[in-house]
Amino acid sequence: MAGAAPSRLVGGAAARPPSAPTEPPWVRRLLIAVALGFLGLFVVVPIAVVIDQALSQGLGVYRRAVTDPAARDAIALTLKVAAIAVPLNLVFGVAAAWAIAHFRFRGRALLLTLIDLPFAVSPVISGMVFVLLFGAHGLLGPTLREHWPGLTIIFGLPGIVLATVFVTFPFVARELIPVMEAQGAEEEEAARVLGASGWQMFWWVTLPKIRWGLLYGVILCNARAMGEFGAVSVVSGHIRGRTNTVPLHVEILYNEYNYAAAFAVASLLLVLAFVTLAAKRLVEHRARVVDAAPLDAAPLDPDAPAARLVPTEASP
Amino acid sequence: MARRGPGALPGFGLALGWTLTWLSLIVLVPLATLVWKSTDLGWARFWALATSKRALASYQLTFGTALAAALVNLLLGTVVAWVLVRYRFWGKSVVDALVDIPFALPTAVSGLAITAALAPRGWIGSLLADHGVRVVYTRYGITIALIFTGLPFVVRSVQPLLQQLEPELEEAATMLGASRWQTVTRVVLPAIAPAALTGFALALARGIGEYGSVVFIAGNRPMSTEITPLLIMTRLENYDYAGATALALVMLVVSFALLFGINLLQAWSRRRGAAA
Questions:
Q1: Out of A46, A94, A185, whose CB is closest to B148?
Q2: Per-residue pLDDT, A135
Q3: Nearest CA to A20 among B78, B187, B194, B192?
Q4: Which pLDDT belongs to residue A238?
Q5: Domain B38-275 CATH superfamily
Q6: A73-313 is classed CATH 2.60.40.3880
Q7: pLDDT category, A8, cuts 50, 70, 90?
Q8: Residue A125 has what pLDDT?
Q9: Which one of A128, A133, A174, A255 makes the best mutation probe of the B interface by having the most chain B beta carbons within 10 Å?
Q10: A194 — contact with chain B (CB < 8 Å)?
Q11: What is the pLDDT of residue A299?
Q12: How close A108 gets to chain B, by Cα (Å)?
């Protein structure tokens, strides 16, 4: 259920005055020590272990492990899967957020819960449902094979993409809904009044408004899409060079007792995690700066939305 | 049905239509297939498969370790959130960023890393081995892996609420003569309790379904260190779809119940947040 924690893009912090009551210094120090000890043991040690193990046999082994043809195929497949799955969920996320944030309709709360479902389901089950649907003995499998004999869904790219789309389903929608709710729709309404068509309004008003929230959702969605293990493991069949994603390749190397190579490839995913977190920080920072900008703070200025409708005339 | 009258905002039909179509295709139909397949089994067969000895042992292990890990995270996650919101210390922004690592790191990598650290020759495992303690391939190892994967939930649930808490509330308590301990336990903790419980439930739900970070450290011996998701995987690999379906349905029902509970908790938490 990664990412189900509340969004960090909405809601500001009230600064505590220095006079606020606090704990005695020894309590403060003790609590800080407990928190740092906990995070050190549970987060820093695993990171350090990955780096240590990856380089344990020297740089030569590391380089060979990450440039090995099977590793390259795995990287290519992982990139391909993310390149398909993320845009699909991006479009869904924008549509869902638009409907849920700006309209009130019956079943809205139920819809919100249903969007969250994939976070609540075990990754193994997320992959398994597609085997039950499209597998050789699945609900649709035999029919599909009859009509499209060449099509492989399970143990092929379509199955991996489906499982990935399922596990990353809520990310973009969940980030965008609070952002859109907080921003309101006054600017969109003004654009409509001034004669913009629906799509003009979307491209020139909505999209620029939500861009940071959108990027945030995409970053989280992409990290999970590239790193998913359980669901993809069920549907992939672990065919080397064909259906092996990077996390699955790591598992295979580990099970072959090729520890240095396994951790070398795993370190690529560690880099992905760091890049994800850095990008996330940057977006959080940008979103706060944008929130504070006068342009967004003055939606009642009648010239502002019109100016942004026609980008060439937009003021600097 | 538009909030500001019909015609004010366009695209409701298209947006909702696409949302429902995509939701049905990707989530609802596949999950319904699982439910439908299990009705194929018939009640007696389903019950026999879902309550086999091996299945019961796996539930006990899965729920027990997930519960223990979520409890540890409830306690220590609240401390981390408290420290990050209330105190200033060197390197705080780095520490805050570290909290997100378990979300960002693929589960297979965290599983391997934790196993390597706790293995008898690993950094922490060797220290434990000196005292005759072994955690890899035991339920304690599984719990440690689940503490890692669930770590951000409580912290990230409690943090925003603690930030929004009005300092006046505590000042008033102090001025009325409450000790610091009384203020914290009677004023602050009740205010953040719903958020902390939400984080706890999220960590629990995540722990129950977790696969990638656990398989490497679990040892996967039937009846003793075999978690339910792994048992499902084993059944699938043996083409025992009936057995896998029965177990998956049990897990699905538990997950839905937890999701329902989390929604209630979040609604409660929001009301608390608005009242504070």
A1: A46
A2: 85
A3: B187
A4: 65
A5: MetI-like (1.10.3720.10)
A6: no
A7: low
A8: 95
A9: A128
A10: no
A11: 39
A12: 10
